[in-house]
Amino acid sequence: MKVVYFGSDVFLSCFEYFLREHEILALYTYHNDEDYFTEYSITRLAKERGIPVYYEAITTDAVKKYFREDGCEMFFVAEYNRIIPIPEDVPEFKGINTHSSLLPQGRSYYPIEAAMERGLSRTGVTMHKLAPKLDKGDIIMQRSFPITPDIDSVDIYLECAKNASEMVGLIFIDLERYWNEAKPQTEALPYWSRPERELMSINHTMTRGEALDRFRKYNAMTEVDLGGRKYYVIGLTAGLSPVYREEIYLSPDRVLYRVADGHLRLHILSREEKR
């Protein structure tokens, strides 16, 4: 099967499945500094295999060309940050989206972080038909797993990837049956918006435990203000000993940060810095 793939490193195992079992015509991806998983590995693998890589949003004309001229049979979407146009005059169009929640609960660009913010005890991964409305296509398959206190948001991303790689293998062995048996989403549950910036930030009044719990939920989306400048926290550990200043720079990207009952060791990335 000829496939156009949309996604990042979150579901790299799905990309590798299509490399082994099918033909990938192109990869559409994106970069976001606040994401723990970026597009580093997937683009490297695509380029090694001679697969074109695109960062720009796909156009309606390009969608039509893939299906009408290039022999594409499926758009597969797995952690992608743009809505894909679905032309009404291309009846042969087929697309599957992979979403990190148990739809219809968790329609969102941030379903994992939002689930942890809400204190949910379970989440999962859903594969559904691409639809004009975000995350509202008919459900093809779902897997569920618990959110336990000893795991963080990265663990959940990895658990989603593990389940998705198994799901995609099952679905594409008998695609016609799974496609025809997909179930419509009938519940009109609300869309989960991005968590408030204040909830994702650490400050000097917090305890070590509070800061670690915040980083557990939001990981590289966690923010800190240093001298009036905003940074992403991309690594955090904690220590008991106090520091004599609120902030001590050990290098441009490593900081000792005073909190109420000790200190944090921060690895930071400027929000203005572009990789």
Question: How would you describe this structure to a colleague?
Answer:
The model has no long low-confidence stretch (mean pLDDT about 95). This protein has 2 domains: about 1-180, Formyl transferase, N-terminal domain (Rossmann fold), CATH 3.40.50; about 195-270, Formyl transferase, C-terminal domain (Methionyl-tRNA Fmet Formyltransferase, Chain A, domain 2), CATH 3.10.25.10. The protein has a 7-stranded mixed β-sheet. Strands 8-9-10-13-12-11 form a 6-stranded mixed β-sheet. A hairpin with a 2-residue loop joins strand 9 (about 225) and strand 10 (about 230-240). It has helices at about 10-20, 40-50, 60-70, 110-115, 155-175, 175-180, 210-220, and strands at about 1-5, 25-30, 55, 75-80, 95-100, 120-130, 140-145, 200, 225, 230-240, 245-250, 255-260, 260-270. It is of the alpha/beta class and about 280 residues long. The longest helix has 21 residues, at about 155-175. The protein is elongated.
Considering the chains and any ligands shown, give keywords for the structure.
27% helix; Methionyl-tRNA Fmet Formyltransferase, Chain A, domain 2; seven-stranded mixed β-sheet; 7 helices; elongated; alpha/beta; 275 residues; single chain; Rossmann fold; six-stranded mixed β-sheet; 2 domains
In short:
With about 280 residues, this protein is an alpha/beta fold.
Give, in spatial order, the strands making up the sheet with the most strands.
3-2-1-4-5-6-7
- Work out the helix count: 7
The CATH superfamily name of the largest domain is Formyl transferase, N-terminal domain
CATH architecture of the largest domain: 3-Layer(aba) Sandwich
How many DSSP-defined strands? 13
Order of helices and strands: EHEHEHEEHEEHHEHEEEEE
Low-confidence stretches: none
* Helix/strand class: alpha/beta
Gyration radius, rounded: 21 Å
Number of domains: 2
Strand content: 25-35%
From the spread of the alpha carbons, the general shape counts as elongated
Helix content: 25-40%
Find the CATH topology of the largest domain. Answer: Rossmann fold
Kindly, what is the distance between the CA atoms of the first and last residues, rounded to a whole number of angstroms?
34 Å
The main β sheet shows up as: 7 strands, mixed
CATH class of the largest domain: Alpha Beta
In round numbers, the mean pLDDT is: 94
